[in-house]
């Protein structure tokens, strides 16, 4: 099948729901290649805790943006966006379909929406003043300030996302116009977003089972080896599955308690992922855990989309 230029597919959803498997299946059916969209699978030597797919599991499909950064190094959404754009160009040059797979919503949305990143930071005094106000009055008060000045922006930003709330308030103060009225960048790619989900109890059980499997596969040793050369406060070690084990190695908690925290934090993260994707990305949802036969429907959806003339992104379609 001929692949229209500047079209990409994204497979999103919570952890432990089968995104990697679907990415490989789609790539096999549609002559595609997989591009990683997970913020921690970019790191070398972090395989078990990130559920990173291994070469013998890739089904012969090329995978990009895995193992590209040492865990001592910091990474950013701007670096991801640049690397992903280069990978998309590479894959598209072979007339293959770029398929981004991952659960890091902001990384993927920065690419989908072509968000401006890495520009000049606002004056420190403005930023520090809002940060001080946040510390004194709390996140709900901060969000109310935004709501008073720009109700539209406030409706799109959760109060807990204080960094984004402060950014919106900074822009309003520096430009004199509402954050929601700022010129919007034009997306570089036409994107079809496939979302995977399943019933909450089933998802949580899969998460708990996956964590047990990670421990059995040697997650404890993986973290121990990382701590030999990587500072505990490194960005890489803030990943779920790694940060929870650090107190164990410091003698501050027993292993069972740390493992229980990994499960709990993973479940909470999955809930946040679902909320983000449902609210921030136009997504076609499938439950392949309950209905694995619907993989063929996913392929059909992508085939039909690739046949259509180039146009803007589709609207959400819940299944």
TrEMBL record:
One of its GO terms (biological process) is tRNA modification. Its EC number is 2.5.1.75. Its cofactor is Mg(2+). It catalyses: adenosine(37) in tRNA + dimethylallyl diphosphate = N(6)-dimethylallyladenosine(37) in tRNA + diphosphate. Substrate binds at residues 15-20. The record marks 104, 127 as: Interaction with substrate tRNA. ATP binds at residues 13-20. Belongs to the IPP transferase family. Catalyzes the transfer of a dimethylallyl group onto the adenine at position 37 in tRNAs that read codons beginning with uridine, leading to the formation of N6-(dimethylallyl)adenosine (i(6)A). This is tRNA dimethylallyltransferase. The gene is miaA.
